Amino acid sequence: MDIFLTLIQVLDSTIRLATPLLLACLAGLYSERAGIFDIGLEGKMLMAAFFSAAVAAVTGSVWLGLLAGIAASLVLSALHGFASITFRGNQLISGVAINFLASGMTVLIAQSWFKQGGRTPSLFGQGRFESAEFPYAIGPEDAELTGRPVSELMSEANVPHLVYSELLSGHSILVYVAFLMVPLTWWILFRTRFGLRLRAVGENPAAVDTAGVSVVGLRYAAVAICGILCGIAGAYLATALQAGFVKEMTAGRGFIALAALIFAKWRPWHAMGACLLFGLLQAVALRFQNIDLGGVVIPVQVMDALPYILTVVILAGFVGKAIPPRAGGEPYVKER
Amino acid sequence: MTLMKSLMGAAAAVALTAGAALAEPALIFDLGGKFDKSFNEAAHNGASRWAEETGGTYREIEMQSEAQREQALRRFAEAGSNPIITMGFGMADPLSAVAADYPDTTFVVVDVTWLDAPNLRQVGFAEHEGSYLVGMMAAMASKSGTVGFIGGMDVPLIRHFGCGYAQGAKAVNPEINVVANMTGTTPAAWNDPVKGSELTKAQISQGADVVYAAAGGTGVGVLQTAADEGILSIGVDSNQNHLHPGKVLTSMLKRVDVAVYDAMSAGDNVETGVFVMGLAEDGVGYAMDDNNAPLVSDDMKAAVDKARQDIIDGNVSVVSYYENDSCPALQF
To answer: Which residues in chain A touch residue B194, judged by CB atoms under 8 angstroms apart?
Structure first.
């Protein structure tokens, strides 16, 4: 029972850690499927994290914060679009610029706005996303009723009830949004006309253009969707997982999401698998510092590095082959 | 003419010495940044206090990357700043390279005690003694018999904190279970509150009901999650009791502000050598204020104050992690 409880707790932590990765990964998926490489996921998340926390702190409403986060991320997306679609600049350089811009601007604005050393004030009450407690799940209310800590009640619950209470219930609403985005993304990309065109524009924009569909319009649409999803990811970090913004709080999650995207070979369901796997690796690394496997001790650093190692292995072509969208990274120039 | 020359020379010499006497101190913050609510912010507070009281001015810079350290040192030294106060163990290597090139400048370094240079004032803190005291408080406040420690980047200094904490907790309750985690092995570990939160949740699920964060900006996430989940936390370096009133048991104070204030007050004739500030010098201690007064019982306070006196008198000795790079009370 104890081992099972630990397992459930690790999986619970996996879901929390995988959510920002998944949102950012799906964001990258839309953008890259349309032929726009985006290494600015990290910067967009960071900008969104800051603005969602700042607006939530000022207005006291987390929903306004979420909107502000999405708007901030969309502005950076538009910038990326301008540079790489309209002006046909190098997409990688534009992405790097966005990361630097976000890293510096967030701290600068935070300092001049709140004077708390590049952070936002702590959020409380309506300024944060509360965890959604499902009916009949063990939660803080039961703890109050019985006067015993939640962890004690959990360890006495039967297995299905435990899975239901700990694993499924008690997450922020954004977690459920993130996981619902996976089938939605699959449906949009593979079952709608828009999705077909979006994929086509990443493979062969000339053909799409010949068919009389606007390449530029489609690519802007993809970049905008990417901005919205990054905005949700950033808001999740700052207003659901945490209660405020701290400088550089994305801590490389945008890059792990990119790794997951390559690992998933640009497919939505696989992206979810990859993000859950990377989330699980992080959760295990956090729960068990050193893992003793019958005399061989695996240090925690190995677990931390595994997402990158796995991505390199995939990229090197040892396990299948990761082929990016064919027109990825190349600005589209109409023949004239 | 010769008289004129020597007069001019004397005047120039006076002007030069006057300039030297008026040399501004300089302060170099570590990677955590000036407002980390912790280590560097304490240095900032000490410097601001000096500036307010004396009306003096000082120059400062925040490090953004490892590569800037030596450059910043040389810049300030060339510009005539004296003394140059630097923060953090990361300054050890750049200082050992730079200090010899500027023999007339005094460098002050906090958290480094092992260098050898005549123009260096090295200030260390007996963090293990302060951590011992908060470890005792944690063990006395814990109902579950499990307490947690969350470090930032995995470096000997942070293990030093954790080691003192575990010894203090075990002094109160030999059966106590101390769960220790490090956030990471790169400087990003000082600024990852999300990971700090997850570590706290993991420790709570292992039964911890008091957690001690020695993790810079990551500690913000630890204290937040502890408050959310209804357990107690312990802050570090600066007094962090006010961050979550009634939820932060105490803070392990490291009087970096005093070290910086003293160095700035002494000006360019600051004494060089190695100085360790422990409990006896009030260099470390635990924080009490209105925010945590209801959490700390009289018994707790009496026991901790007695231990403090015992350590100062030498009746109780707290083993330092540095002594043989291992800890008797905690396995990392």
So the answer is: 17, 237, 241-242, 249, 251
Instruction: Tell me how far apart the terminal alpha carbons of chain B are, to the nearest angstrom.
Output: 75
| pLDDT of B330 | 83
- pLDDT of B65 strictly over 80: yes
- Residues B5, B201: contact at Cβ < 8 Å? no
ipTM of the complex: 0.79
Residue B41 sits at the chain A interface (C-beta within 8 Å): yes
- At B219-250, the pLDDT tens digits run 989 999 999 888 999 999 888 899 899 999 99
What is the per-residue pLDDT for B16?
Answer: 47
What residues contact residue B8 under an 8 Å CB cut-off, 6+ apart? none
A86 touching chain B per CB within 8 A: no
B35 in reach of chain A (CB within 8 A)? yes
List, as ranges, residues 180-209 from B with C-beta within 8 Å of A.
Answer: 180-182, 184-185, 188, 191-195, 197-199, 201-202, 204-205, 207
* Residues of chain A under the 70 pLDDT cut: 1, 149-151, 289-293, 318-319, 336
The pLDDT score that the predictor gives to residue B142 is 93
- A chain contacts of residue B41, beta-carbon cutoff 8 Å: 117
Residues of B in contact with A13 (CB under 8 A): 198, 201-202
Are A249 and B181 a contacting pair at CB < 8 A?
no
> What was the pLDDT predicted at B131?
95
The answer to whether A155 contacts chain B (CB < 8 Å) is no
CATH code for position B222: 3.40.50.2300
Hey, are the CB atoms on A286 and B199 less than 8 Å from each other?
yes
Beta carbons of B182 and A301 less than 8 Å apart: no
Evaluate if residue B51 carries a pLDDT over 70: yes
How many domains does chain B fold into? 2
Q: How does pLDDT run across A320-330, given as a tens digit for each residue? A: 777 888 888 88
Residue B162 contacts residue B191 (beta carbons within 8 Å): no
> Do B195 and B310 belong to one domain?
yes
Minimal C-alpha gap between B63 and chain A (Å): 14
- Alpha-carbon distance of A11 to B196, in angstroms, equals 17
pLDDT in tens, B70-106: 999 999 999 999 899 999 888 999 999 999 999 999 9
Helices (H), B173-297: 193-205, 218-228, 256-266
Q: What is the largest CA-CA distance in chain B?
A: 87
Domain coverage including residue B89? 16-125+258-277
Same-domain check for residues B178 and B314: yes
Query: At A224, phi and psi to the nearest 5?
Result: -70, -45
User: Do B63 and A139 form a contact (C-beta atoms < 8 A)?
Assistant: no
Tell me: do B115 and B167 sit in the same domain.
Answer: no
CA B331 to CA B317: how far, in whole Å? 19
- Domain assignment present for B288: no
Q: Is the peptide bond before B118 cis (omega within 30 degrees of 0)?
A: no
| The pLDDT of residue B157 is above 60 | yes
Nearest to B58 by CA among B272, B265, B269, B273: B265
Domain boundaries, chain A: 2-133+170-315
Shortest CB distance from B217 goes to which of A5, A9, A246?
A: A246
pLDDT on residue B10: 56
Report the pLDDT value the prediction gives residue B15, as an integer from 0 to 100: 47
* CB contacts, 8 Å: B181 with chain A: 286, 289
Q: What is the distance in angstroms between the Cα of B186 and the nearest Cα belonging to chain A?
A: 10
Contacts of B62 in chain A (CB under 8 A): none
A2-133+170-315 carries CATH number 1.10.3470:
yes
Are the beta carbons of A229 and A23 closer than 8 angstroms?
A: yes
